[in-house]
Specification:
Elements: E1 15-20, H1 35-43, E2 49-50, E3 55-56, E4 62-67, H2 75-90, E5 95-100, H3 106-116, E6 121-125, H4 145-153, E7 158-163, H5 176-179, E8 180-182, H6 188-195, E9 199-205, H7 227-237, E10 241-248, H8 259-274
Parallel strand pairs: 1-4, 1-5, 5-10, 6-7, 6-9, 7-8, 9-10
Antiparallel strand pairs: 2-3
Helix pairs in contact: 1-8, 2-3, 3-4
Length: 275
Amino acid sequence: MNYYCANSTFEKAQIVIVGVPYDGTSSFRPGSRFAPNAIRENSYGIESYSPYFDKDLREKKICDMGDMPLPFGDKQLVLDIIEKFSYKLIKNKKKLLSIGGEHLISLPLIKTFVNKYDNLTIVHLDAHSDLIDSYRSEKLSHASVIRRVCEIVGFENVYQLGIRSLNSTDLNLPYRKENLCLFNFDKAQDFVERIGDRPVYLTIDLDVLDPSIFPGTGTPEPGGVTYKELIDCLKKLSVLNIVGCDIVELSPQYDTSGVSSIVAASVAREVLCFL
C-alpha cells in the first residue's frame, strides 16, 4: 500500500516517501517499526487537501518507494543500509520524507544529507532532547541521536523545539541557551530568521504532541503541545529551505483507537504540502 496520492513514478516525482521500519534501540515500548504501513493505511482516511497550507497533494508529484529492506539484529548494518539507500534517493534532486521507525534512523539520514548539502542545519521537534552521550553505555540510541547529530553538523547548527524531558547537564552543552526552546514553539520564528536560506533537515518526533492527542508512542511525555500548535509551528518553518524530513516514533499498537496513526498521517500530509 502506498501513501494516499503518491501516484508518480520515481523519475517524475518531486517528493519521495520511504518507510524506515526500525526500532532496535527502543528503550521503553518498542513497535515503531510498524508505523510506516500504519501511516500509509490511515492516509486514506484524510483529505488530500490541507486547509492549513491551502494545497492539495494531488497537485504534487509524489512517489512512495515502500519500506527499506532492513535486517533484524545488526544495528550497524541497518544504519549503513539507511544511509546508502537514502543517498540513492536524494542524489537525483528529490525531496525526501522518511517515515519511521524510532528516532535513531535520523542519524544515517542526516549523514546522507550532510554529504550532499553544505552548511546543513537541523531543526528538531521532540519531547526529549536526545542529547545524552550514551544510554546504558550505548552511544547509538534513540536517546542519544541528537548528540551524535551535533557531533556531525556542530551544536550551533542544531535547533530544538518543544523539549520537555532532558538531563540538567544538557543545558550546559554548546549553544543550548540560544538554540533550545523548552516546553513550546515560542522561539520558532526567531530560529527561522537566524537560519535564513541555509538548507534544513527537519526531524519530527511525534511525541512532541501531548499524550492526550498522541498516546501511540514508545516514550510518552505529559505536558506536550496540541496538534494546532504543531501546525502553527510547521507553517512558520515551511518558509525555510527544507531539503528533507523524517517523522518518527509512532507505535500504533499502543493506541487501539487508531487516532495516533491518523494524527501521524495528517502530519505527513502537512509536511508533504511544503516540501
